[in-house]
Design brief:
By secondary structure, this protein is mainly beta. The chain has a single domain, classed as Roll (Ubiquitin-like (UB roll)), CATH 3.10.20.30. It contains one helix and five strands; from the N terminus they run ββαβββ. Strands 2-1-5-3-4 form a five-stranded mixed beta sheet, with no helix packed on it. A hairpin with a 2-residue loop joins strand 1 and strand 2. The longest helix is centred in the first third of the chain and has 7 residues.
Length: about 60
């Protein structure tokens, strides 16, 4: 699987919310795209991830 263009190991039973937790990412503060599915901040589903999935994780930043 790829996360933001970088290879990441896949394992059986890996889900999107589990992955974000393991990476120390608060799902309320990121938008995630899994292949063609977009999950806005705070709306990530606990969907299974496959070995060939491509994820883009975008952190929400406030400007000033």
């Amino acid at each position: 699987m790829l996360i933001n263009g970088q290879p990441h190991p896949h394992r059986e039973d890996l889900t999107l919310l589990t992955l974000l937790e393991e990476l120390g990412i608060d799902p309320r503060k990121v938008a995630v795209m899994v292949n063609d599915d977009l999950y806005p901040a705070g709306r990530a589903e606990d969907r299974p991830l496959a070995e060939h999935d491509v994820l883009e994780v975008v952190r929400m930043m406030q400007g000033g």
